[in-house]
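[recover] target loaded
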């Protein structure tokens, strides 16, 4: 049995249900050899996870998952081995967080004008201290009885083109890659399968992002079908990108996805992390 890892995990710092320390303990108890903390647009969980890793002598990789803007929606860029105290990184993340907060307030105002009385305080309560986003607003609309399900909240009000949708400031993929690189990190294109592009198109995107400093491709991922995994592996080989892998663990918020295992069959060998470290001179 080879040593296994998970390089894509969320905590309470964004939209995961475990605290950073709980995530590290769970990774260790599950028999994994390393775990990366990759919260959406924040490094707030990284310090706690590193400290818990040190305490338990368990390998924790500091990371992030930045949402970047592309014409068809969004593209996620993972960053590994980042210095989570880097000033330019923290300044850019602060700007993203501020814009998120203003946007949440504007969404609430739009809901008011649609005669749905929901308050910012109620929203914060649902989010439970972490980063607040549309999934929490959707949950609030369900709890208040305005919609039967969170999906309907998105479909009727919250998604792009619907009446309570509000834009927010986002980075471009190359800005995200440069920010990660400047913070000493390794930039990786997350879950290429979610781009809904053909292998040829993904190869083209990857070629463009290489110029900005892309170093890896998330080949192994919970929702990739076997033929996608093989195709992305070929793209990684051709472009000399390091293949990486992770489950996108969110704890109870995505109950079908198990840490280190995805929906059951995912296996991410430690060798991938060894290659990443070699590439980064670590
Ligand atoms: P936010 O960062 O606040 O814009 O929220 C983004 C999150 O909302 C995504 O990670 C998804 O979990 C969820 N989401 C976005 N669009 C939809 C949609 N059309 N249907 C359901 N969930 C969505
Ligand atoms: Zn998430
Ligand atoms: Fe993602
Ligand atoms: Fe994720």
């Amino acid at each position: 049995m080879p040593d296994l890892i998970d390089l894509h995990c969320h905590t309470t710092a964004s939209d995961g249900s475990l605290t950073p320390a709980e995530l590290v303990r769970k990774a260790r108890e599950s028999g994994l050899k390393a775990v990366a903390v990759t919260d959406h647009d924040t490094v707030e969980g990284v310090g706690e996870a590193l400290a818990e890793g040190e305490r338990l002598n368990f390998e924790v990789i500091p990371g992030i998952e930045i949402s970047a803007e592309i014409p068809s929606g969004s593209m996620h860029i993972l960053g590994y081995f980042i210095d989570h105290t880097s000033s330019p990184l923290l300044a850019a993340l602060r700007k993203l967080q501020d814009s998120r907060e203003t946007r949440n307030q504007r969404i609430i105002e739009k809901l008011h004008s649609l005669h749905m009385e929901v308050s910012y305080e109620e929203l914060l309560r649902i989010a439970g201290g972490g980063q607040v986003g549309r999934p929490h607003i959707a949950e609030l609309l369900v709890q208040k009885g305005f919609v039967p399900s969170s999906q309907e909240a998105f479909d009727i009000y919250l998604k792009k083109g619907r009446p309570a949708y509000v834009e927010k400031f986002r980075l471009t993929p190359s800005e995200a890659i440069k920010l990660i690189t400047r913070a000493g990190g390794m930039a990786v294109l997350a879950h290429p399968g979610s781009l809904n592009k053909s292998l040829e198109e993904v190869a083209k995107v990857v070629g463009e992002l290489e110029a900005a400093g892309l170093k890896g491709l998330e080949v192994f991922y919970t929702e990739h079908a076997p033929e996608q995994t093989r195709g992305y592996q070929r793209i990684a080989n051709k472009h000399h990108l390091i293949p990486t892998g992770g489950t996108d663990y969110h704890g109870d918020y995505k109950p079908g996805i198990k840490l280190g295992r995805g929906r059951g069959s995912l296996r991410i060998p430690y060798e991938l992390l060894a290659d990443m470290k070699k590439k980064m001179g670590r």
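[recover] notes: Residues 65, 76, 190-191 surround fe (iii) ion (ligand 3) (CB under 6 Å).
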